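ok so i was messing around last nite and threw this chain in just to see what happens. nothing serious, just curious
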Amino acid sequence: MKNLYKDSRFRLIISANIASSIGSGITMIAIPWMLVSSDDGNKVFGFITIGMTILSFILTPFIGNLVDKVSRKKLLIVSEIVCFVLLFIFSLLGFMGLPYEIWHYTIIYMIGSLYYTIFYPTMFALNQEIFTKDHYKSLNGTMEVQGQLSSMIAGGLASILLMKWELHYILLLNTISYGAAIFFYLKLPYVRLPTIKAEVVKSQVSEGIRYMLARPAVFIFLLFSFMPFIGVMLTNYLFPVYLVDVLEADASVYGIEGMIYAIGVVIAGVFVPTLSSKFGNEKTIIFGILVYTIAISLIVFVDLPVYLSLMLFLAIGNSSTRVARNSFLMDHIPNNIIGRVDSLFRTLGLLIRILLLALFTEMVSSDLIVYCFIVLSGILMVSLSLVLI
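result:
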């Protein structure tokens, strides 16, 4: 791990990620808040969220193909530049005194969402490409911690800036953060791997599907080990409703929940690399899914203090699975096809999320939120069984 921290490439990537994550994180907190605060904002934001999830589902396979065909460094820089230019234009509109409307908020939210859709698979493939196998575990653990700490900083800053700044100042801060990220990426030493450069990468988006279908056991293992992350995405919708309607908690409890979850992520990010080095990625993944499954299954049976303590175990379970799963992918999937394989699982994950979100939305509207957690618990138990098998 010490050798990794001494690597200038690692330091440049972390610096770029922190800059862009904090800037975009503040914007992606501010825009939903401004949307839901406007007339019919709840309904509009719901449609936008569903629309962006569907758009990500459509685009993700093609982005995975792009990640395998072009320079990952160039792809990151181009995406940062595009976001920089677009947000700078929207910031200028505010400085010119023009009022922001719903369609402005919508486009800004779309820019942020599409940025994330491109950033994560590209960064994942880049890390696998430029670092060696003995760094994967500590690298993925550090990236997990960095992402969570950046989100915490963005959340803290957003809670202050939303009360003191108008949107155009927040957008300007975001453009500055993208500018800093571009600077760090430009300084990153990077040469495309000769094995990838020399090979004519097949352009078919379906190449990732064919690769995994030839390895059905690995496909099932990786697909169902993705379920804790899907559970986290679904509970981002379920937990606020459960806190208000069932536990009758106030907004401060939601903030405490986020802090406890962040602590769990940091614990996992620090200790999982050692755990997976000792017991292997596969056993660490099983451990993470088991912890997450037990915690999510207990949610509906406990009172508020125990509910909050379970957030720690949900975070440890999900983050342990993510760190070990990413290391497993890096170890077993060739770099020339990693973008398409990774996008295959992201696409399937988005499809599952869309279907379950539609089901849970209907159940919540019928006052059946407790049964949403029972369904989710059942899905996690099936996933754990399949991963064990």
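not much to say yet. The two ends are 32 Å apart (CA to CA).
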